[in-house]
Amino acid sequence: MTAVVFYHNRISAKRAVMTPQLQPEETRTQKKATPNRAWTGLAAILMAAAVLRYIGIHWGLPSELHMFSYHPDEFHSLRGVFALMTGDLNPHFFNYGSLYLYLVAFSCLILSGGQLSLTSFDQLPRMLPEWTMIGRDVTLVAALLTVLAVYALARAIAGHRQGLLAAALCAVFPLHVLHSHYATVDVTQALMTTVALLMAVRIYQAPRQRNYVLAGLAVGLAASVKYNGGLVLLAPLCAHLLLLRQTDRPSAPARHLWWLVGMAAVAFLLTSPYTVLDWTHAKQDIAYELRHMREGEWPAKEADPNGYWFHAVNLTMTTCGGTFFALLGAWTLLRDRQYRSRALILLVFGLLWVVIIGASGVRYGRYALPLVPVVAVLAAAAPLLVWRSRSEVKIAAILMMAALVSVNTYYSASLSQQLMQPDDRDRALWVIADYVPKTSDIGTVWEPWFQSPPLDYVNGGTMLRQNPLWQAFSRQIRAHRTLGLDPQALQEAAPYAFVHSNFEVRDALRVGHHHAQEVMEVLSEQYSLVWHNPTRAPLAGMLGWAPPQDWLYPFPELALWVRQQPPVQSDENDTSLHEAN
User: Is the pLDDT of residue 573 over 50?
Assistant: First the structure.
């Protein structure tokens, strides 16, 4: 920060000699009034975005079959609700910032009439679906606001026509549509980073103190959703430095930079106060998260060893080729002096974000969500390359953009439609009832969690199933034992049946893990595959693409195996089995 201020003062001294008088931005470039049809078009885009995101929003909610959502991270989004329910503002969870947790918690408080309390913990199963749904509604609102922010950002860079196209692309990109169905932090973070980018462009257009203050607030809020969102601070700093290099543009005094950084700190501290007030615990959670990001998760990291290639392929597939048009749009903007500086603000952030997520050892597609607005804006600028050409070329550009929007709309609609279908984990319970006697045990790779049929009502994985509060609700739906990917344990336990999902075995098989291969050999030799449902995820397998796990959360691939020759049972067991059936 001090280096930026020093650079600012040095350049300003030179400019004082070179430029006797600077004209304000408003007199230099007058903005054209936005046509009324632009607002009509934007309203239609928002309506389409809302429909795509609301259809299927009830997917995987807690029910009488499973206590927790089938999304493994939605429980953490309720941490603020649990804290507020006990009169404590400290969420006691610091793996990321508290802003989204507070948004969900206070939304629950408001919608409950200000009475967020339980007369008995027995009410928790009834409240979890309602609270999770409120969290998803918060995400839905954030998603629609992101579409608006993308319009404003693209309009500030290249005009209202490109703003509408960028908003339409953001509205229909499948990656953004899918994650807008979840009560998780990523879509809200993308909103805050997009607003920060918008204010950075505004700083370049009109370097007023107000724009620096608003940019700082957006940066602080982005960091308060997820800490790495604070990296968007580079965008307004870039805008400030670009102004200093312009001899025909007004610049801002160095004190505006302190407003920028100061307001970012204020916004973060006001919305994530216990990150500082409870630093002892926050430090532990942050250290864990940093270590997790550095080390990654086995075997996903080994299955996709190059993080940059992983995100490049994932972003290309989940925007249906939008990244290709984004690269073309970036080249178009950079070669035109009219757009170059404003485009640089966007590109600097985009490249920084690619470096950060590509260097991480964890492989989740949702980490690229802050790049979706950037891709939308840059892709919308691609037609500018030929806009001054012959009418035939213009028509070709329009048709290509129409095809891009149409293909993304098709796959997003397909996603939402699939989310409306009964979940295959619920269906698997009915299949198990048909093939496995009630008194027989079932082998699994992991504890009952999001990845498999809810063999226990408390489907929270090892962490929640060991917690005394949630353990009290445990209700075994089917006898089961966790065997891991251990062929010897499978042979010794010899369960009547074995069930697994792609989340447990896919990546291990992709890297050739010998224990996983041996488990599959034992199953093939000693068991019969009685039920297998391939994943219903749109785009999965297209062009050989192996989607990341968070693309497949609603679309597991499940397999049920039954022993070819079950162990001989006693007469008593035979009687009980007959009665059970």
Answer: no
Asked whether 191 and 145 are in contact (CB, 8 A), the reply is yes
pLDDT (mean) for 116-136 = 88
> In this structure, how many other beta carbons lie within 10 angstroms of the beta carbon of residue 149?
24
Model pLDDT, residue 568 = 53
SS3 category, 569: coil
Residue 200 in this model has a pLDDT that exceeds 60: yes
Query: Is it true that the peptide bond before 207 is cis, omega within 30 degrees of 0?
Result: no
Burial of 419 (0-12, 13-18, 19+ CB in 10 A): buried
129, 63 Cβ separation under 8 angstroms: yes
What is the reported pTM?
Answer: 0.91
Q: Contact at 8 Å (CB) between 159 and 166?
A: no
Residue 62, CA distances (Å) to 112, 124, 130, 326 in order: 19, 11, 9, 39
For the chain, give the mean pLDDT. Answer: 90
Given a cut of 50, whether residue 24 has pLDDT beyond it is no
So where are the chain's domains? Answer: 2-11+37-64+74-80+135-419, 424-580
Please, which residues have CB within 8 angstroms of residue 503's CB and are 6 or more apart in sequence? 450, 451, 549, 552, 556
Q: How far apart are CA 239 and CA 86, in angstroms?
A: 45
pLDDT beyond 90 at 305: yes
Q: Would you say the C-alpha torsion 151, 156, 160, 163 has a positive or negative sign?
A: negative
User: What does the block give as tokens for 261?
Assistant: 């950084």
- Between CA 421 and CA 86 the distance in angstroms is 36
SS3 state at 554: coil
Q: Tokens 């067991």 appear where?
A: 573
Amino acid at 409: T
324 three-class SS:
helix
Report pLDDT for 117: 74
Contact between 336 and 342 (Cβ < 8 Å) = no
- Strands 480-482 and 527-533, how do they pair? unpaired
What is the number of other CB atoms lying within 10 angstroms of the CB of residue 234?
Answer: 18
Neighbours of 257 (CB within 10 A): 20
Give dist(CA 309, CA 344) in Å, integer: 23
pLDDT in tens, 248-283: 666 678 889 999 999 999 999 999 999 999 999 999
Report the residue count for the chain: 581
* Contact residues for 12 (Cβ-Cβ < 8 A; gap 6+): 244, 251, 254
